[in-house]
Amino acid sequence: MIRASSGKSAARRLLLGAGVLAVLTPAIAGCEAGNGAPTLEFHAASGGAQTVFNGIRINNVFVLGAPSGATVPSGSSASLFLSLYNGGKSADTLESITATGTASSISVTGSPVTLPAFSAVDLTGPQPTAVLNDLTTSLTSGTTVPVTLTFAHAGSVTLQVPVEPQSYYWTTYSPPAPSPSASAGARVSKNKATPIASPSASASASS
């Protein structure tokens, strides 16, 4: 009789525990719902360097290297990709990008790049908008290079940017074209897309 009573008590406790769990599960799930759910919040890209600097969110910054097992030789050029989000109430401008000790200069199509308030600007691929010119050192995938972004109001910030191989996910991304092209520009997204005008280049030969 004692054993039987003990067994029934244990069964009751199990049933009671299951009932409490059933009641709490919707409440716990409800914590992930609503306007403040984590899935609805802005999440930075997972690859590349990223930071938030004076209201500017800098995402997924990387240099495109050679295919796996190869290097980009010094004296050549390399593609740079990144995304920006201006979370401030005032517009800003990306005035320049430099890579001291890695490239003689970095050219950005459509530079200077306007960053409207609460807007994203993508300098992403697969075709490069930003190019490291005249590399002063060879680039090996898996290493990092210092890249400095200078904004008109936010100031300058330096990130250690990874060199990603032109393989796997980055296979469709392109190295710089042999000749510069002004056809591609930064894509600005807001309520209405406002493309940044790319400067038209005209060449004249003199004898």
Question: What would you say this structure looks like, in words?
Answer:
- The protein is mainly beta.
- The protein folds into 2 domains: 2-38; 44-189, PCu(A)C copper chaperone (Immunoglobulin-like).
- It contains 1 helix and 13 strands.
- The chain has one helix at residues 2-30; strands at residues 49-53, 56-64, 71-72, 78-86, 92-98, 103-108, 113-115, 119-123, 130-135, 139-140, 144-151, 155-164, 187-189.
- Residues 1-8, 14-46 and 180-207 have low confidence and may be disordered.
Helix content: 10-25%
Estimate the mean pLDDT confidence: 76
Poorly predicted sequence stretches spanning 5 or more consecutive residues: 1-8, 14-46, 180-207
Instruction: Just give the CATH class of the largest domain.
Output: Mainly Beta
The assigned structural class equals mainly beta
In short:
The protein has 207 residues and is mostly beta strands. The protein has one helix and 13 strands.
Main attributes of the structure:
207 residues, mainly beta, eleven-stranded mixed sheet, two-stranded antiparallel ribbon, 13 strands, globular, disordered C terminus
Topology:
Elements: H1 2-30, E1 49-53, E2 56-64, E3 71-72, E4 78-86, E5 92-98, E6 103-108, E7 113-115, E8 119-123, E9 130-135, E10 139-140, E11 144-151, E12 155-164, E13 187-189
Parallel strand pairs: 2-12
Antiparallel strand pairs: 1-2, 2-4, 3-10, 4-8, 4-9, 5-7, 5-11, 6-9, 8-13, 11-12
